[in-house]
């Protein structure tokens, strides 16, 4: 049988998977091992052109153990969460045959064959931009393709969920709901797509990566502490979120931006309120996060109807969702007014992603940033500018789900050695 | 009748009233006019030697209108809240007679006579240290004495409550409960003393007055917004606080510091969580407040049992309640390590109030602050110092309730002119 021969074939698959940002938040597990949440959540998938994980996975009879490299560094695959994903995938693997290459792998062989995983984020891992969600989703998606797993995305989402809860929502583009499910084994705790990325395609997203010197509480331990100690979290999960989920689905269906913004902001704030209600309290937002919220709230109030929604995950970074391109342009002007780069920063590395928004805002060089006038809504109370409080901005939009990259040149694995290129 | 004669007599009374800090928080009214809260609250009265309002009130047939001076500046008494207090007090005034001075005021005269009020805080009004609580309590207390109002403190508390909710708790020393009451007219929404200031007299309180450039949301409008928009506030008021009130009363009775600290911190955090759950969200704590909490939490964890409780009102200032003098000394060393004064600050104006704590901490001059070693609990993660993030510290303790100052020289009113001295 080929898989046990001494042949040195290497079979590999490369995939790209997006990150996502929750607009109705996931915070709190009812089962720590299976990663089952205490409430449904809803997210927007972000355009993988600006934020994604690319993962190449390979299998070969020559590999002697499962190995993984993340952003150029070898990391251990021995963690329970990786192992859960690998076990679930291997148990669902199907026979594979490539007659030309003389490769034949039976369902049983998959249990014995080792894999190599090489993964890369096109954004800084440390920036707190849900890299683990995209990473685990990409690991599961690419391995499922490699192992010829015939389950649909929804079943795959239940596997990715066991690697990192919010990873399950990265298996679809557009708007995604993670249904908490009822089963003890977690089989019905899956992600489903509410609408694809074309459904509401005038939304524009700007992420403010906020400078922070504080070490943040990991979301795993933070949500465990919240479930154990917050007197408010149960009320949120049982009474508040179920209503918001119904409302958010309707709002997305109708593309009702003002209602979308109100719900998104309220749910982000409530998640952080629950963090504060935890013992010891958890602070993910800092003064810069607060200032960004104040800027958006002031502007939205001034306009009479929301132009921008804000949402913050387990860190100080703001994800700002604009009604449309025009609102995004006005938002970027405001952001650059309040949070200009330090004088020695290159504007080109300060606003990344979809740079056409910067162009629309009439900003080409640092002197244009310096020349920005205070927004009209700040007329009465003159405001300060805060250079250096934001590390950089990423301009992006809602995006598509995972894809296989068929172009061999995009593989991160050397097809001869099975090691990172 | 004397009160309507052309005689120029001036009758005056001077009183001193403490501030208080809630350990179970008041946040949210069920009646805006009568100032009736949605839950009970419990506070500690602070030593008036360090934080108090002194108010002199005078009455004279020569006065042509009600007038008030606060910290040297004339302010209007026309606000509804002042007017409510004045009306309530006048309606309860009793006949007064001073035969020597030839003054006789009947109950009916009080309705027509005008008052002058001169009030002074022995701490910066703008620092957000509950100056309105002490101020309104002192206004009501001193006018009640002047007008010979024969109601007990508890009835007076219901009048002070109509001036500023938390003012009702400043009518007693020690530990005070504001009972929310049930009556629509507010007659049973009163303060009662749980224990006097001698009951638990080893507690030491250090207040960190935190520098802030942000304009804060007034607590009046903030709590209105919370009641109208926070999905969590009702659950807090109905389900969480009633249990905490019972527990806190027991904890105070038993002088159980670890339980006191846990409850106090948890309730402060939950109040701020409700603020964050408000639309638009309200941020009273800033990065410095968060750092103070982290410092205390880390130390408490390191000691195995709480040494210090923290609580924050509607602003970034921390009120830190230490188990005893030794804990307060260790706390002050930590605070001065993390938050030293700017190099040009005089240490004597940086730590005010009971300076013996500073002496116990072995700190006499700036070089002693500079020489402070990092606290042992920070061993693993070296920490930054943040000069200038705290404006100053006030060392104090639980204190007594309002008193009349009989020494005429302490009056703030010129007995000849009826105007501020």
UniProtKB/TrEMBL annotation, chains A, B:
Compositional bias of kind Basic and acidic residues: 377-388
Region of interest (Disordered), residue spans: 373-392
EC numbers on record: 4.1.1.33
GO terms for cellular component: cytosol; peroxisome
Catalytic activity: (R)-5-diphosphomevalonate + ATP = isopentenyl diphosphate + ADP + phosphate + CO2
Gene Ontology MF: a single term: ATP binding
Residue intervals of the Diphosphomevalonate decarboxylase-like N-terminal domain: 18-191
Record domain Mvd1 C-terminal: where: 205-404
Enzyme class name: lyase
Highest taxon of the lineage: Eukaryota
Protein name, as recorded: Diphosphomevalonate decarboxylase
Organism for this UniProt entry: Scutellaria barbata
């Amino acid at each position: 049988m080929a898989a046990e021969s001494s042949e040195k074939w290497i079979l590999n698959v490369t995939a790209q998977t997006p990150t996502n940002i929750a607009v109705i938040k996931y915070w709190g597990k009812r089962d720590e091992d299976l990663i089952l949440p205490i409430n449904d959540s809803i997210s927007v998938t972000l355009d993988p052109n600006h934020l994604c994980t690319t993962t190449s996975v390979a299998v070969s009879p020559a590999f002697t153990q499962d190995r993984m490299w993340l952003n150029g560094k070898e990391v251990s695959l021995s963690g329970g969460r990786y192992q859960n994903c690998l076990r679930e995938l291997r148990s669902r693997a199907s026979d594979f045959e490539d007659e030309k290459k003389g490769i034949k792998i039976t369902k049983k062989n998959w249990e014995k064959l080792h894999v190599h995983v090489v993964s890369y984020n096109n954004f800084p891992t440390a920036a707190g931009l849900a890299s683990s969600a995209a990473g685990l989703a990409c690991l599961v998606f690419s391995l499922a393709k490699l192992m010829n797993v015939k389950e649909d995305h929804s079943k795959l989402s239940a596997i990715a969920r066991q690697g990192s809860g919010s990873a399950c929502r990265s298996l679809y583009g557009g708007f995604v709901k993670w249904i908490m499910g009822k089963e003890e084994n977690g089989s019905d705790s899956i992600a489903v797509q509410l609408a694809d990325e074309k459904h509401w395609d005038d939304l524009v997203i700007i992420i403010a990566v906020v400078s922070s010197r504080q070490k943040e509480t990991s979301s795993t331990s933070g949500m465990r502490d919240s479930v154990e100690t917050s007197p408010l979290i149960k009320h949120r999960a049982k009474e508040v979120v179920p209503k918001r989920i119904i409302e958010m689905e309707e709002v997305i269906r109708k593309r009702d931006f003002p209602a979308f913004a109100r719900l998104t902001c309220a749910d982000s704030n409530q998640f952080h309120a629950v963090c504060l209600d935890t013992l010891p309290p958890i602070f993910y937002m800092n003064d810069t996060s607060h200032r960004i919220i104040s800027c958006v709230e002031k502007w939205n109030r001034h306009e009479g109807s929301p132009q921008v929604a804000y949402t913050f995950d387990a860190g100080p970074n703001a994800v700002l969702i604009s009604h449309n391109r025009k609102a995004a342009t006005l938002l970027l002007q405001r952001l650059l007014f309040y949070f200009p780069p330090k004088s020695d920063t290159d504007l080109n590395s300060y606003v990344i992603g979809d740079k056409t928004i910067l162009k629309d805002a009439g900003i080409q060089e640092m002197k244009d940033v310096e020349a920005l006038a205070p927004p009209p809504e700040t007329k009465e109370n003159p405001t300060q500018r805060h250079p250096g409080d934001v590390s950089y901005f990423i301009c992006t939009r809602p995006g598509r789900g995972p894809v296989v990259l068929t172009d061999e040149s995009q593989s991160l694995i050397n097809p001869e050695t099975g090691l990172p290129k």
